[in-house]
Specification:
The chain has about 675 residues and is an alpha+beta fold. The chain is built from 16 helices and 35 strands. Helix 3 links the parallel strand 5 (about 80-85) and strand 6 (about 115-120).
Length: about 675
């Protein structure tokens, strides 16, 4: 009987595996060291967890392979075919800089060097009329050149192809005739959008990643099949859904942010189980912290993202802000004599000073050890922490330079780190028009549960939720997603004059394409859900908002009013007298994957005793005698008042004085910060 669901999240240090039994809803976890080839780490974890792949009904995977390939530039040789005169669009970019005032900092080079960006005669005007047909003689000569160069992938990017992709499609046919085994990405198929740099950039990334991810998914699929797995491998993509290997070749760039999306999905799901439709995810690991937001049960989505500045990837993505704040973030003093924290990190090796691997600079982990918030071991005793080394690092890095006591210095380190994370939460909430007081904070990752309450207090967030297995919550997210694809079509019109019937015709075409794609992936018609949005803006603007559109559209006035309301919430103003423009039609096609429910537990009435007590510094100069609990001992319905420390294999939960925590029926710890 295939009753197991397995999710794997590959990180830089650990590969996390989450195994759910469909019949009971119970979850168990496994962690193993990541390897140079992620597949070896995955299979090692499967063996370590004693998973019989023949009993697995679903194997879902969040991967950093595509992200790492872009960051390290370990990409196969990729070529670009452009309209004559436009080979430098991806190098000119928007002529902007990440740091506006740094004259000497250059934007990183394009993914495709100029010598591999070739041109051909063709032209389509802004209305989609073919002015100059493709020069097929030149196209075939260009294809022969690329074949001699032994390129591994090609991106075809023609001007105005978003209105009419006929020339691009013909160019693709010619390339496939000359190079049948080379993947070809065309901009009108990847991203039919008006802005040429964003369209070209996304297509280039898609082409460059295609050989990388196809090779990876093929090898992983074969290894799983050899061990008995009989279903499709599901791959988490940036939009918050999964895709099968059948779609990877054509939409490889969707995996570029695969890893970080899983945590956002899991935090939203856990918050909803606890009764919170609005939630903020705080995923704090060893090096970085990822912050996400869900409003009314929906994750916030963006199309404005990149792996490297200057080269946007315009596929829909769950919005996640990442900052350099983690357990290994270093405390340091800037030129003005101010204490700073991160983004520099001690990493996994040598790691924090208390690891004893040679680092002498204080980190957040060292500060938490000095304050008694962390004990003397992590990962169930696999990592031993030396309090003497932590104390020495805090003394040398902060206490002596600033004339502070050791505990005051450690507290200062933590306060600066918390301030950095609070700022990130403000960026994704307050600056977007959301009030943190209306949200719950889901704190997870190896270090999130140590800092969650302090950040919640800073932002007046009333509740903090700590999942049962904070360190592998991202892996859990891979079990909670559906097959999902996003389709879009440029549609430029004045909203007040637009014809609903014409819009319905375009949506119908997108829906046919979506149904074909999902059918190709084996999704049953009864499991398909289609969601429409229209990108709208005040005329004269170029940034738009996605407004939910009904099916069918009956009144353009209702759509315009919905846009005004959304604009007011996002930007705190509306202009009812201003004309509104339509920019793009979007369709999200979802193939619903049946989900096993997490096991619910009845209260036992048992009051567990602390496993130990130790002094822990909170606010103030004196340490509080604090009970230490083992997380696995805490039953559903158990509640306690702070201060308390709760330890488990993959994390430590800090419950400060003045708060009250309760274990719910799903074994989440809900900490009430403000009644």
């Amino acid at each position: 009987m295939q009753n197991l669901r397995v999710a794997v999240d590959v990180g830089g240090t650990f590969t996390d595996i989450c195994i759910m039994d469909e019949t009971t809803g119970l979850i168990r976890i496994e962690k193993t060291a990541s390897s140079q080839d992620p597949i070896d780490g995955i299979m090692s974890g499967v063996t370590k967890a004693a998973i019989d792949l023949g009993k697995v009904a679903l194997f879902s995977h969040g991967t950093t392979v595509a992200t790492n390939a872009l960051i390290t530039r370990r990409l196969p040789r990729t070529a670009m075919v452009c309209t004559k005169g436009f080979r430098d669009v991806i190098e000119i970019r928007r002529a902007n800089k990440e740091d506006l005032w740094d004259t000497y900092k250059d934007v990183v080079r394009p993914y495709i060097p100029r010598r591999d960006r070739l041109v051909v005669e063709e032209r389509v005007d802004a209305q989609g009329v073919v002015v100059t047909p493709l020069d097929e003689t030149g196209a075939r000569e260009l294809a022969r050149i690329l074949k001699r160069r032994d390129v591994a992938a090609v991106a075809v990017c023609f001007m105005n192809a978003y209105m009419n992709g006929a020339n691009e499609r013909r160019m693709k046919q010619i390339l496939e005739e000359e190079m049948p085994d080379v993947p070809i990405s065309i901009s009108s198929g990847v991203l039919p959008e008006i802005f040429e740099h964003e369209r070209f950039s996304t297509t280039v990334v898609n082409a460059a990643l295609s050989p990388v991810v196809v090779d990876y998914t093929t090898r992983l699929g074969e290894r799983l099949k050899e061990e008995g797995y009989t279903r499709d491998l599901l791959l988490l993509h940036t939009g918050g859904g999964v895709m099968t290997p059948n779609s990877v070749k054509d939409f490889a760039a969707r995996l570029a942010g695969s890893g970080i999306a899983a945590g956002a999905i899991a935090s939203r799901h856990i918050a909803m189980l606890c009764g919170f439709q609005n939630s903020i995810g705080l995923d704090m690991g060893g090096t970085s912290t990822d912050v996400s937001l869900a409003y009314e049960g929906q994750s916030r989505v963006t199309k404005d993202w990149h792996i490297e500045f200057g080269y946007p990837i315009r596929f829909s993505s769950i919005e996640v802000l990442t900052i350099g704040a983690g357990g290994g973030s270093l405390a340091w003093t800037d030129e003005a004599g101010s204490l700073r924290n991160g983004p520099q990190s001690a990493g996994a090796n040598p790691g924090p000073a208390c690891y004893g691997n040679g680092n002498r600079q204080a980190t957040n982990t060292d500060a938490n050890v000095v304050l008694g918030r962390l004990g003397t071991s992590l990962a169930g005793g696999k990592i031993l922490l030396d309090p003497a080394l932590a104390a020495e690092a805090v003394d040398e890095s902060v206490a002596r330079p600033f004339g502070l006591t050791r505990e005051a210095a450690a507290d200062a380190i933590i306060r600066v780190a918390n301030a950095n994370m609070s700022d990130a939460v403000r960026l994704i909430s307050i600056s977007r028009g959301y009030d943190p007081r209306d949200f719950a904070l889901v704190a997870f990752g190896g270090a999130g549960a140590l800092h969650g309450v302090a950040i919640a207090r800073d932002l007046a967030i009333p509740a903090v939720i700590v999942p049962p297995n904070p360190g592998v919550t991202s892996a859990l997210g891979c079990l909670l997603v559906d097959v999902q694809h996003d389709f879009s079509e440029s549609y430029l019109a004045n909203a007040g004059e637009a014809d609903p019937a014409s819009i319905e015709t375009e949506f119908a075409r997108l829906e046919r394409e979506a149904l074909e794609r999902l059918a190709h992936e084996g999704v049953a018609p009864a499991d398909i859900v289609l969601q429409r949005t229209i990108d709208m803006m005040y005329q004269g603007q170029w940034r738009s908002l996605a407004v939910a559109a009904p099916a069918p559209i009956v009144s353009m006035a209702d759509l315009i009013e919905a846009f005004h309301r959304q604009h007011e919430r996002e930007y705190n103003f509306r202009r009812d007298e201003a004309p509104v423009g339509l920019f793009r039609l979007n369709l999200k096609a979802i193939g619903v994957v049946p989900k096993a429910e997490l096991a619910a537990h009845e209260p036992t009435g048992v009051t567990p005793a602390p496993t130990s007590r130790r002094p822990v510094w909170f606010d103030g100069e004196a340490a509080a005698d604090t009970p230490v609990y083992e997380r696995s001992d805490l039953p559903a319905g158990f509640s306690l008042s702070g201060p308390a420390v709760i330890e488990q294999v993959d994390s430590t939960v800090l419950i400060p004085p003045g708060t009250r925590a309760e274990v719910d029926k799903y074994l989440n710890i809900v900490i009430r910060v403000k009644d």
